[in-house]
């Protein structure tokens, strides 16, 4: 386990020495290259060819309709540079390195959301720069992409500290800057500036964090792109977005209507680019320009901030207790169970798995929470796997409620198999056997993966209580004459 970091230098040392040296090397090398002479073309090819996976992805993206509408086949990096341009190939290489290098390390929602916002900011900034700069708009793209590099590195690599920060930020009334300073011992802005300096990423990236430099056109394009991508998360018709569109119109010399169309067109272009890069999870996080999709995205963002509701929790527990004696029908029992766990206890994703096919496998019976729709149709897991036993069979066999991801359960981590991680993601979760008396019904699963917040003791206590009461309801139903 990594030594706990606190303070700016501690985090910089960790990222550079333990977590991100390979990524830092590629980013530095790609950023340092300029099209000054022919040697730079070969140097760019050499940097990309060091990594076969990176080379393959750059070639695939270079062959896409977005970058290569003529569809002339590109089979080498040198050919890509000739056909789609040095700057485009360098930009693709740097973007792929950053996105893949971080997403491979963490499945956190905070990381994916920030990567999507950074990608959106980069496209907005580059297109703004096209109005005011004769060249270097690609530098503006990279500067905007790396504007929050410190925060990106933290959510991608910080492990337990990221859990701690996510949990602290989720508390009612939490002030983000204060909480970040308390947990990290530094700010995300200071962390980004220090990484920019450490990785030697150039003036534009660095100056974008300094208020004294905001009259520089390139810097102003980066800052406007970053602010637009942030404001867009709350919708396109907010006062904040209206003010930014006004600044944009004045900066690039167009009408308010034209500026708004430019902003929306850049958002649509970002989605196309993200799809071209093969990161569909980012596409879904870039604010949509369709009014109905905007509404749905805003609802999903609210869901990520789901908070426990003690009144709902207590009422659901009381209702389930009454259902034991009244022998209520199954639908009502499950409705109450899921409402109590989701809205009451604040558990974000919940699944009831039942034994089926002669008790040979677990199948999803009911699910709730963002991103769980597919579970209802195709979540199937064999009960007995002698070559690879898993945590769900262990919980049922031992009739034990488990809180995975805390020290008390570390000795069972190997039972959280790769197929389970791939399907449900990384991080904490609860699992408990559902029993009707002595009869095994299945399992109840819950996590907080939507927001990435750490689970709490109070939630585990509620989870256990709901599981027990539901089992008693099912036992009463089985005895019903």
Automatic annotation (TrEMBL):
Q: What SUPFAM superfamilies does this protein's entry cite? A: GAF domain-like, HD-domain/PDEase-like
Q: Domain HDOD spans what residues?
A: 20-215
**Pfam families, alphabetized:** HDOD
UniProt-listed InterPro entries: GAF-like_dom_sf, HDOD, RNase_Y/CdgJ
Q: What name does the UniProt record give this protein?
A: HD-like signal output (HDOD) domain, no enzymatic activity
**Source organism per UniProt:** Pseudomonas guineae
Classification of source organism: Bacteria, Pseudomonadati, Pseudomonadota, Gammaproteobacteria, Pseudomonadales
């Amino acid at each position: 386990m990594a030594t706990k970091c606190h303070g700016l230098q501690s985090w910089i040392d960790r990222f550079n020495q333990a977590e991100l040296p390979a990524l830092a090397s590629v980013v530095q090398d790609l950023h340092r290259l300029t099209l000054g002479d022919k040697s730079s073309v070969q140097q760019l090819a050499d940097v990309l060819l060091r990594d076969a996976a990176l080379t393959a992805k750059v070639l695939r993206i270079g062959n896409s309709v977005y970058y290569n509408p003529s569809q002339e086949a590109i089979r080498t990096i040198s050919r890509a540079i000739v056909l789609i341009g040095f700057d485009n190939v360098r930009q693709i290489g740097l973007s792929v390195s950053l996105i893949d290098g971080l997403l491979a390390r963490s499945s956190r929602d905070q990381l994916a959301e920030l990567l999507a916002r950074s990608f959106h900011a980069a496209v907005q900034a580059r297109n703004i720069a096209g109005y005011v700069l004769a060249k270097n708009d690609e530098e503006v793209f990279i500067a905007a992409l790396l504007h929050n590099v410190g925060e990106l590195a933290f959510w991608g690599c910080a492990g337990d500290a990221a859990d701690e920060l996510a949990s602290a930020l989720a508390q009612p009334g939490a002030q983000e800057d204060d909480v970040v300073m308390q947990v990290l011992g530094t700010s995300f802005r200071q962390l980004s500036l220090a990484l920019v300096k450490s990785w030697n990423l150039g003036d534009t990236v660095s100056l974008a964090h300094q208020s004294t430099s905001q009259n520089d056109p390139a810097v102003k394009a980066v800052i406007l792109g970053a602010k637009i991508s942030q404001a867009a998360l709350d919708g396109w018709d907010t006062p904040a977005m209206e003010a930014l569109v006004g600044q944009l119109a004045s900066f690039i010399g167009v009408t308010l209507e034209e500026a708004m169309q430019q902003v929306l067109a850049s958002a649509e272009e970002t989605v196309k680019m993200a799809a071209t890069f093969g990161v569909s999870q980012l596409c879904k996080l870039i604010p949509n320009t369709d009014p109905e999709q905007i509404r749905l995205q805003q609802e999903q963002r609210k869901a990520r901030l789901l908070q426990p509701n003690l009144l709902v929790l207590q009422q659901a527990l009381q209702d389930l207790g009454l259902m034991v004696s009244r022998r209520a029908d199954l639908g009502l029992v499950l409705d109450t169970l899921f409402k109590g766990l989701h809205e009451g206890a604040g558990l974000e994703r919940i699944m009831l798995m039942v034994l089926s096919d002669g008790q040979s496998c677990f199948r999803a019976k009911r699910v709730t929470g963002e991103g769980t729709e597919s579970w209802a149709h195709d979540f199937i897991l064999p009960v007995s796997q002698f070559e690879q036993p898993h945590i769900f069979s262990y919980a049922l066999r031992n009739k034990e409620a488990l809180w995975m991801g805390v020290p008390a359960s570390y000795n069972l981590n190997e039972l959280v198999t790769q197929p389970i991680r791939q399907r449900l993601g990384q991080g904490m979760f609860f699992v408990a056997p559902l029993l009707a008396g002595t009869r095994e019904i299945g399992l109840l699963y819950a996590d907080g993966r939507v927001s990435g917040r750490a689970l709490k003791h109070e939630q585990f206590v509620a989870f256990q209580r709901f599981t027990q009461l539901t089992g008693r309801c099912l036992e009463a139903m089985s005895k019903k004459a």
